[in-house]
Design a protein that fits this description.
Blueprint lengths: L1 H15 L2 H15 L2 H14 L4 H13 L3 H13 L5 H13 L3 H14 L4 H13 L3 H14 L4 H13 L3 H14 L4 H13 L3 H14 L4 H13 L3 H14 L4 H13 L3 H14 L4 H13 L3 H14 L4 H13 L3 H14 L6 H15 L2
Length: 378
């Protein structure tokens, strides 16, 4: 009789052994099928059997990432890490979570650990580069993009990101070469072709910009940035009617594309069609309430009409949306000067000089600041 009881007890014990593993495997099975609720239930049941089973915390974290529950994902991934999970895939996932939570420094640190685990992973270098770029560490970002290229010479996205950084750093010829290399690998890479158009526009190479814009539209005639950029090229070539046609066509394709409304507004302002331009600027704000250049232009319209209070309101809105918007500070200075607020005007011009990358008129502005400060002390 006693031996029978012992056997039954032994069977119960054996049945309980490894339950956390079997439930983890069940969770993994459901997760692969996309049945995340069942997967989560299985992972949590696994943890009830063994609260120190790291893989199940990893599983819960993964499901939370899939469901975009970033705080819950972080909590479970950190528990998995404490319990010993620390491979490259883990660090890539943890980095994504930190990125989604806006903790960019921690994201960069974790992606760096992912690279240490697998130094030859080009995608990890690319991902770290993107984070460093968001942290305004442009040289460091460029180094990571170039590392990705060195590890995978046929990786068009790596050339694309490298080109963007080179352009941002003012290395135009190198940026052009990188975009062309991306397009050689992936000849219908519409984003790269469009960015090449922008590079030519920003470096006053209008004919090259035109040819590049044509290629963009051959790749995708409905690609909105490409349609708008062709309009900009037409403006620069003096064909304003054709430019307007491109802007209006892009709006027909997607009425909510705020950049098209903005470019049309600028064109209309140049044609002295103020009311129409104002209507377009209002549409810009409707579709993108944080687009600071629209507020700047509305401020200039109000200033032109002598509506100083309204102009100041719009311009202050512009810098509240973008605290580094140099030209908006300059315009605020002009409004305040007209209002007789000389000390505040001097401060606005000072802000302009602080944020402008290469203020060509710095001596003139410094002289104006000195005059305004003198006037405010009388």
């Amino acid at each position: 009789m006693k031996s029978g009881v012992i056997i039954v007890l032994l069977m119960i014990i054996l049945a309980g052994c490894g339950s956390e593993i079997s439930y983890y495997k069940r969770g993994s099975y459901y997760e692969k099928k996309g049945e995340y609720a069942k997967a989560l239930e299985a992972y949590r049941t696994s943890l009830k059997h063994d609260s120190t089973y790291a893989l199940s915390y990893m599983g819960v974290g993964n499901v939370m990432v899939k469901n975009k529950r970033w705080e819950d994902a972080l909590e479970n991934l950190l528990k998995a890490n404490v319990l010993g999970i620390a491979d490259q895939d883990f660090y890539m996932m943890l980095g994504q979570v930190y990125e989604e939570l806006g903790q960019m420094e921690l994201a960069a640190e974790v992606y760096g650990k992912a690279i240490k685990e697998r130094p030859d992973d080009a995608l990890a270098h690319l991902t770290l580069g993107e984070i460093l770029e968001k942290n305004h560490e442009y040289e460091a970002a460029l180094a990571e993009y170039n590392s990705a290229i060195a590890l995978a010479i046929d990786f068009p996205e790596a050339y694309f990101h490298s080109a963007r950084m080179l352009a941002k750093l003012g290395r135009i010829t190198e940026a052009e070469e990188a975009y062309l290399q991306a397009l050689e690998i992936k000849n219908r890479y519409v984003e790269a072709q469009n960015n090449l158009t922008v590079l030519y526009l920003n470096s006053a190479q209008t004919l090259k910009a035109f040819k590049s814009a044509e290629k963009t539209l051959k790749i995708d005639a409905g690609y909105m940035p490409g349609v708008v950029n062709m309009g900009i090229v037409c403006e620069l070539m003096g064909n304003r009617k054709k430019a307007e046609k491109f802007y209006r066509n892009s709006i027909k394709i997607d009425n909510s594309y705020h950049i098209a409304h903005f470019r049309l507004a600028i064109l209309l302002l140049g044609d002295k069609k103020e009311n129409e331009a104002l209507s377009e600027l209002k549409l810009v704000i409707r579709y993108n309430p944080e687009f600071s250049p629209a507020y700047n232009e509305m401020g200039l319209i109000a200033l032109e009409n002598g509506e100083y209070a309204k102009a100041l309101e719009h311009l202050k809105k512009a810098v509240s949306m973008d605290s580094t918007f140099a030209i908006a500070y300059y315009n605020i200075g002009g409004v305040l000067e007209n209002m007789g607020e000389f000390s505040e005007a001097a401060q606005a011009y000072t802000n302009y000089l602080h944020h402008a990358e290469t203020p060509y008129d710095s001596l003139e502005v410094l002289s104006r600041i000195k005059i305004l400060m003198s006037a405010s002390n009388r």
